[in-house]
Structures are given as C-alpha cells and as structure tokens.
Amino acid sequence: MAGRHTRYVPDRGLTTRMVTTMFFIGLLYVVFVGVLVALLGKAWPIVLVVAGGMFVAQFWFSDRIAAFSMGAREVSPQQAPELHGAVDRLCALADMPKPKVAIADSDVPNAFATGRNQQNSMVCATTGLLRRLETDELEGVLSHELSHVAHRDVAVMTIASFLGVLAGIMTRVALWGGIGRSVGRNDNNGAGLLLMLIPLVSALVYVISFLLTRLLSRYRELSADRAGALLTGRPSTLASALTKISGDMARIPTRDLRQAEPYNAFFFVPALSGESLAGLLSSHPPLQKRLDQLGRISGQLGQQG
C-alpha cells in the first residue's frame, strides 16, 4: 500500500491484516446495529442517527480529538528546530508530504502519529522523549511513526477502535431512551429482557472488537519498526531508542502512566502501569521481539553492504 506513494517498503502482510480486520469490524458493526434496531423496535431511528453520527465524527474528527486528549500542540520550526529538522529529513528520504509537527508536554517518553491520510496527518513527540534521545535515536522513532502514516494504518486503527466506543454509547442511549420507563409500565412486553440483552450484546461486541484491534496493533508495530529501520538504514538507532524508552518508562510515576494508557495503541512504546495482563492485552509486541527483529534487519543490511 505504501510502496506506490512513498519510499517506505510495502508490507503485504499488514495490508492483508488491515483489510481482514476492517471486514470483520464492518460485519460486526452491521450485526450490532441490526440487533439494536430489532431489540429497540420503535426507537430504531435513534439508533441509526446516533450510530451514523458517531461513525462520521470518528472518521473526520478522531485525529483532532486524539491529539487534543493527549495534549499535543502544533509547533513551528522556530519553536522546535531539532524536531522539525528530523521530520524534514525523513520526509525527504521517504518522498512523502510533511505532516504537522507537534509536542505534548509530558514526561512520559513517547511519540505518536494521527491522521486519516498523508495530507491530514500529524506526528507528535513528548517533551520527555525529546529530552532523553539523541538526534539519530529521535529520527529512528519518527521514522517508525511516519511509516504508520505512509501505510495508512493509523486510519484503520481509528475506525476499528470506533466499534468498542459505539457499543458503550449505544448501551447508554438504549437505557436512557425510555426502556426503563416502559419496564415500570408493563414488564410483560419484554422490556425487562431488553435491559439484560443490550448490555450483554454490547459487552460481546466490545470484547471482539478489542481483540481484533489488539492483534492488528501488534503486527503494525513490528511492521513500522521494520519499515522505519529499512528507510533510515540504521536499525541499531531504533533499537537503542526502544531500549532507552522502555527502561525509562519503569521510572515514570504510576499516575502519569495510567493517564497515558488509554492511548497506547497510538504510542511508540506502551505506557503500562501494571504487569498482570500486560503481556496478553498489550497493544504492542514484547520488547525483546522487536529488538530481535531489528537485530535480524541489521544483519541483513550488513550482508548487503
């Protein structure tokens, strides 16, 4: 997908996974809305209006919402010359449009990219990341993030994560839409059953969409590592940044990590405040797996050289 527009290496495995995930997410979305329409009877126009409105809002405004939520503020080349310089060099190397450049005031060392396409994208680094990394390490991280934009997997992840959000909102709409009042008037019409079925259906939809996005998220991170390392030709600097950030993450206050956790799917390295289910439910593959892949790429580039 990226090979036609940038110099980032195309990844057929990523493209296949994105198409497959979107197919199942779309199918799940149609089934979910259909079930709600069937269960809510005369309230079906509300379901369609809310579902349609939420989908449009998620697609068109999710990048701005995510950036705002994570405290990203756009900066000029005069305000952040080193960051802009790194993005300029990488965009020239990748032959892709330069995205908006932003900084988030956070001690959590991380970076992320948003945007539904290359023309509406933004790459952001935290102040904690800029303070800790050398210039070549920063370029390695930014190359990883720009590959997400080039492969368009940011947009896919944004749309895929929408269904879980919709499930929760639809449950609230259903419960606030008069079902409870109808139970009080006449429990024989099955309204009591609706109160039980709607949260159960929503919970099932959330779990399935969560697992689908997690599987895609892990692969896309490995793909971005690979594409970023091949673009710069310096996998060792990306490995160095990964090791440094992961090590420093353990010294970040738990409160700050918890605030960042909801946005892990967008981050370069996940912000994890606990270890119990981190390995199973993490949006990122294990650190060692990422380092092993970069080591193999380094060896391959050495042989080619």
From TrEMBL:
Membrane topology, record value: Multi-pass membrane protein
NCBIfam families (UniProt xref): PRK02391.1
Cofactor requirement: Zn(2+)
Heme as UniProt keyword: no
Name of this chain's protein: Protease HtpX homolog
HAMAP family registered for this protein in UniProt: Pept_M48_protease_HtpX (MF_00188)
EC primary class: hydrolase
One cellular-component annotation, GO: plasma membrane
Domain Peptidase M48 positions: 77-295
Cellular location(s): Cell membrane
Residue stretches spanning the membrane: 21-38, 44-61, 154-179, 191-212
